[in-house]
Amino acid sequence: MSTPKILVVFYSRNRSTEQLAQAVAEGAMELGAEVRLRRAREVVGPEVMRQAPGWLENATTMNARYEAPTEADAEWADAIVFGTPTRFGSISSELKAYIDGLGGLWFQGKLNGKAGSVFGSTSSRHGGNESTLLSIYPTMAHLGLIIVPTGYADAVMFKAGTPYGATHVSNRDADKPDDDHLAVARFQGRRVTGVARALQGEREAVPA
C-alpha cells in the first residue's frame, strides 16, 4: 500500500493556528504519511495589514517558512486538513479564497473520495470555534471530501478540542496551544492519515 499523502493547509495571523497545523502534521507523520504544510496567503494589501499590530511582520515570517497552497497540492493529496482562525464565527477569507480556487478540480471530480478534516482557533472564549469548524463541513461535502471528525475516539478528546476538530482559545493571543490541545491536533493528524490509508484503494472504484 502506498504512503498516504496529507495536505495541511491553514491560515494563521498570530501563530496559534500555525502551531495546531504543525501538530496535525506531526501526527500524520507518526503514521508514516508524506505531508505538505502550506499557509494560505493574505487577500488584502500591506496598508490594511499594518492596521493590526504584528500582522504584517508575522505574515512575512510565516510566508517565508511555508509555501503557498496550490491546486496541484490538493490534487496530489489523499487527504486535506484545513486550519483556520475564527472570523466572526466562520472561516477566514484567506483560507476560503484558496478553497474557492479549487473549482476546477471539483468540476473534474478529482477531489471526490479524498478525506477531509478541519481545525481552528479563536481569540476569545465562546468566540465561535465550533461554529467555524461546522461552517466548513458543508464546503467539504460540496468538494466531495469524506469528512473525518475527531469524535471522542481517543482519551485526549476528553481534555481538549471538540468532536469536530482540534481547537484552541488564545485569550487575545496571550496563550498558545498547551500540551493537551496539541495532543488533540496530533491525534487528528493520525486519525485522518488512518482514514486516508483505508480509502486509498477505494477512490478509483467510486465513479466521479
UniProtKB/TrEMBL annotation:
This is Flavoprotein WrbA. InterPro entries: Flavodoxin/NO_synth, Flavoprotein-like_sf, Flavoprotein_WrbA-like, FMN_Rdtase-like_dom. It comes from Cupriavidus laharis. PROSITE patterns: FLAVODOXIN_LIKE. Keywords: Flavoprotein, FMN, Oxidoreductase. One of its GO terms (molecular function) is NAD(P)H dehydrogenase (quinone) activity. It comes from the Bacteria. Residues 6-192 form the Flavodoxin-like domain. Belongs to the WrbA family. SUPFAM superfamilies: Flavoproteins. Coiled coil: none annotated. It holds the Pfam family FMN_red.
